[in-house]
C-alpha cells in the first residue's frame, strides 16, 4: 500500500450530513501541524469534496508519478517554528470545475476509494486524517474493508466522530458509532460541533443549537468526549478570504480571552495581501485553543 510511510490513520466520521466534518478535519490537521507533526488529509467525500476549498488550494493540480499520484502540499515543515508539514489529496483536484457533479454508482465509488488508498504516495507522515461522507455507505464499507485488511497492526488508530448538539443529529450519529462497533473501528472520541455562536460584533458566545447532546451520546456509548466547538464566523472569513481573525475587546470563548490586542489589526488592504501561511493565521482564531486541547486528547488516545 502507499500508506507504508504513514504512522497513524484517523477517520473523521458522522452519520449526519452538515455537522462540519470537513471543518473539524481541517482544524485537526492545522492543530496537529502546529504541534510539530507531519500531517496528511485524504478526502474521500467523492460527491462533495470540500477539502481543497478549506485549505484555499482549489487551483492546485495533482502530479502524476509512476504508478500513482503525489498529494498536494499545503505547506512544508518549518522546524524553527515547530510546524509540521501538511499535504492533502482529494477528488476535487481531479475535477475540471469546482461545480462539476460526480454521478457515480457504488462500484465506481468503491474503486475510487481503493485507488486513493493504494495509489497516493504519502511521504513520512505522522497522522493521516481521512475525511468521509455522511452515513454508512459504500465509501465507509470500502474504507473499513481495505484498512482492516491491509493496514499494519495498530496503523488504523481509530475514528473521531462528529455531531451537533440537537437530538435529531445525535440520533443519526449513534448509527455511526454502531457502525464502528460492527467493523471493529476504535472510537477515539466524540466532538460536539456548532455548540454556541461567537458573535463578530460583540463579546458574547450564545448556544443557538442547544448544548450537551454530544456529551450525553458519548457517555451512553462509553467513549471519550473530546469537546465542544462553537460556530465562529471569523474562521469562515479566514477560510474564504485568507484574512486573519480579529475579535472585539472582552471576547471570551471556552474560558479563553481571544480579544485582538489594541492596534494589532492591520488595515484591510494590507490584511488581504497578508501572505503568511494559513496555519499561522489560524493561531489567532478563537477555535485554535479548543482544537489544541482536542488534538492533545486525540494524540493521547492514539498512543494508548
Automatic annotation (TrEMBL):
InterPro entries in UniProt: Mrp/NBP35_ATP-bd, NUBP2/Cfd1_eukaryotes, P-loop_NTPase, YlxH/NBP35
Keywords carried by this UniProt record: 4Fe-4S, ATP-binding, Cytoplasm, Hydrolase, Iron, Iron-sulfur, Metal-binding, Nucleotide-binding
GO BP terms in the entry: iron-sulfur cluster assembly
SUPFAM superfamilies documented for this protein: P-loop containing nucleoside triphosphate hydrolases
Chain segments carrying region Disordered: 248-270
Pfam families per record: ParA (PF10609)
CDD domains: Mrp_NBP35 (cd02037)
Subcellular location(s) of the protein: Cytoplasm
Bilayer-crossing regions: none
GO cellular component terms, semicolon-separated: cytosol
Residues bound to ATP: 15-22
UniProt similarity note: Belongs to the Mrp/NBP35 ATP-binding proteins family. NUBP2/CFD1 subfamily.
Function, as annotated: Component of the cytosolic iron-sulfur (Fe/S) protein assembly (CIA) machinery. Required for maturation of extramitochondrial Fe-S proteins. The NBP35-CFD1 heterotetramer forms a Fe-S scaffold complex, mediating the de novo assembly of an Fe-S cluster and its transfer to target apoproteins.
Protein name as annotated: P-loop containing nucleoside triphosphate hydrolase protein
